[in-house]
Structures are given as C-alpha cells and as structure tokens.
C-alpha cells in the first residue's frame, strides 16, 4: 500500500512549518527527507507518525485515513515504528527486554507467545545482537545501542519505519557502518523507510528517492542521481554537493561565461538556471590548470582529503569549490584557470 500525503499544511501560530506538501511514497521504498534545520522535515515525520496533526490536508495509508484537519488516527493504531535521534533505551532493561517490549502493546495482542518469541529472535539475528542479548545499555557501544533501537523498531514488522536523524550522535566511521546495516535491514524486512536527515551523504548513499525541503516546501523529489546531477533549483544545487553556479548568459544551447570568451554546451541544464543566466558545475567537473582557456582565479583555501584535495578558488567576486586528484598539487594564492570537463571525462 502507498502512503499518500495530499496537500498537507502545518501552522504553529503564524509560522508555516509545512506548506501544501504532497507526496506518494510507494510500498517498500526507502525515502530520505533532506534539508537544513527548520525546513519542516521532522514536522512532516511527526505528522506521518501521528505525533502531530496537520492544519489542513490528508494522510492515507492505502484506503485507511491516518490524518486530516478533523481526525488523527492514534499512534498505536498505525502499523509503524520510529527510531529516534537519541537511542531512548532504559538503563535497567537488557537488550532482549528492549526488543520484546513493543510486542507487549495492545497492537500486538493477537500474536501468540511462540510467534512473539520467533519475532524477537529474528530481530536479534537481523541486527547481529545474539551475543549481546543479556547486556544492559551501559555495557554497549554507541553503534550497538543504535542496533538495539533498530531491532526494537522492526520486531513487530511494521509497514512503515520512521527514522529521525538516527545516526547524528555517532562518529564518522560508525555512521558509515550503520548506513550499510540500515540498508541491509531494509532489504530483509521490506518495510517502507522514511528517513529524516540533514546529511546529504546519508541521503545519497541509502535512499531510493530523496525529498529535498526548504522553508516548509518541497524543492525537488528524485533519485539520488537525479537530485545530484540534475538539480532543479539553486537551493538544491548548492545544498546537495556544493554545486558551483557560474554566471553568464545563454544563447540558444550555448552558455557564455560572464566577461570571457569561454563557452559551455548545454548538458541537460534545467530551465531554472537558463532563465537566471547560470550554469551549474559540480566541484569534480572543474579541472584546475596553470594555463589555458578557462576562468581565471586564485587558490584561497586547500584541504587534503586523501585521494583528492578540496580547493576554494576566488574568481573575481565568486568563490568556487573544486575537487582535484592529489597528484595535481596547487599552492594557496597560486594563479590558475578553471576548465570545465566535458561530460564523460
């Protein structure tokens, strides 16, 4: 069954947290809701979960009404689970007791004891917690605590799994490991996952589709590749992947860089940018050269990242971000030119 969000608006006094939001989320999809703090992504997640009510609009799961302006189906009657930003573990309960806890609710009263036991063992197995089943939260690492929270969320086999920035409290290496575990869990359970994050790398790495939000509005919905390679607005271009917006003018399918003789061919640039005299260029699509026909600039910042170096280049009044191979080493304050790579290079 699809989750259908139709023209949902949420107001807090005079503040519009969500503005006429409409989305259809298909059964089994992994959806990431991406955006900066205050964009409305957590408010949308809370309304889907039943923790808040929309000011107007409707949310349906198939033919079942979840919410509208006059009705809100209680949380316990929605077949969903939520993984919070904090692990939300009780210090006196073991790993197994945490995972068993959701099955004691009225929603799962129809399950027999043997079925519940099998569900707990399955959730423990899915999340690799067999050897830790009798430990208390104080004896677990951050990653292990997050796996407990995941196992507790999936043990009742919900149709929808809501995740509110679940990896934000983990260190960088653990985040990468947990991404894979969440992807594996999605494949094993087949649940629809709605994952809120402000981290673009998480969204790009895990989701089937990404919803990008700004100021309560949806800026773009698409696959990770579509959102990265074909941003539809300036906000999406800059927020996802630090796209450089080169200024100039368009003539038919040719872009002329401002105050130069440099021309770029139209490589599926969206009308939004054409109408505004811009050409989006990703950091890896620029090549830094010491001479040649390119946008003249000067290196102002340099950050070593292992296989590549991230440069900031000042070109008159604009600053561009460029990723180059570590073999091509440039110095701060060095005069260079930026050459756009042709597609496929």
UniProtKB/TrEMBL annotation:
Q: Do the record's keywords include ATP-binding?
A: yes
* Highest taxon in the source lineage: Bacteria
Q: Which UniProt keywords apply?
A: ATP-binding, Nucleotide-binding, Transport
Report the InterPro entries cross-referenced here. AAA+_ATPase (IPR003593), ABC_SmlMolc_Importer (IPR050093), ABC_transporter-like_ATP-bd (IPR003439), ABC_transporter-like_CS (IPR017871), Mo/tungstate-bd_C_term_dom (IPR008995), P-loop_NTPase (IPR027417), Transp-assoc_OB_typ2 (IPR013611)
Provide the GO MF annotations for this entry.
ABC-type transporter activity; ATP binding; ATP hydrolysis activity
Cross-referenced SMART domains? AAA (SM00382)
Indicate the segments forming the ABC transporter domain, all copies: 3-240
Which Pfam families does the record match to this protein? ABC_tran (PF00005), TOBE_2 (PF08402)
Which Gene3D superfamilies does the protein's record reference?
A: 2.40.50.100, P-loop containing nucleotide triphosphate hydrolases
Gene Ontology CC terms, in alphabetical order: ATP-binding cassette (ABC) transporter complex
Identify the PANTHER family for this entry.
SPERMIDINE/PUTRESCINE IMPORT ATP-BINDING PROTEIN POTA, SPERMIDINE_PUTRESCINE IMPORT ATP-BINDING PROTEIN POTA
Please report the name of this protein according to its UniProt entry: Transporter
Identify the stretch annotated as signal peptide in this record.
none
């Amino acid at each position: 069954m699809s989750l259908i969000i139709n023209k949902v608006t949420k107001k807090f006094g005079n503040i519009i947290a969500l503005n006429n939001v409409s989305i259809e989320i298909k059964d089994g999809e992994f959806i990431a809701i991406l955006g900066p703090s205050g964009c409305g992504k957590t408010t949308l997640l809370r309304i889907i979960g039943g923790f808040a009510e929309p000011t107007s609009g409707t949310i349906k799961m198939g033919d079942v009404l979840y919410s509208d302006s006059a009705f809100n189906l209680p949380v316990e009657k929605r077949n969903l689970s939520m993984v919070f930003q904090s692990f939300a573990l009780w210090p006196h309960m073991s790993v197994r007791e945490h995972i068993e806890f959701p099955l004691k609710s009225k929603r799962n009263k129809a399950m027999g004891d043997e079925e519940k036991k099998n569900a707990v063992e399955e959730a423990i197995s899915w999340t690799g917690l067999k050897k830790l089943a009798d430990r208390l939260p104080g004896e677990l690492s951050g990653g292990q605590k997050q796996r407990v929270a995941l196992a507790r969320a999936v043990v009742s086999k919900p149709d929808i799994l809501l995740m509110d920035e679940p990896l934000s409290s983990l260190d960088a290496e653990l985040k990468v490991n947990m991404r894979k575990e969440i992807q594996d869990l999605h494949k094993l359970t087949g649940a629809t996952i709605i994952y809120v994050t402000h981290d673009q790398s998480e969204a790009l790495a895990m989701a089937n589709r990404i919803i990008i939000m700004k100021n309560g509005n949806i800026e773009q919905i698409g696959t990770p590749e579509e959102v990265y390679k074909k941003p539809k607005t300036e906000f999406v271009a800059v927020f996802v992947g630090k796209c450089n917006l080169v200024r100039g003018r368009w003539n038919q399918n040719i872009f002329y860089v401002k105050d130069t003789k440099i021309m770029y061919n139209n490589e599926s640039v969206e009308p939004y940018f054409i109408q505004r005299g811009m050409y989006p260029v990703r950091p890896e699509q620029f090549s830094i050269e010491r001479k040649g026909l390119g946008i003249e600039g000067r290196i102002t910042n340099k950050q070593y990242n292992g296989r590549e170096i991230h440069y900031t280049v000042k070109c008159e009044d604009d600053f561009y971000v460029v990723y180059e191979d570590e073999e091509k080493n440039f110095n701060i304050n060095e005069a260079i030119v930026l050459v756009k790579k042709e597609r496929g290079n």
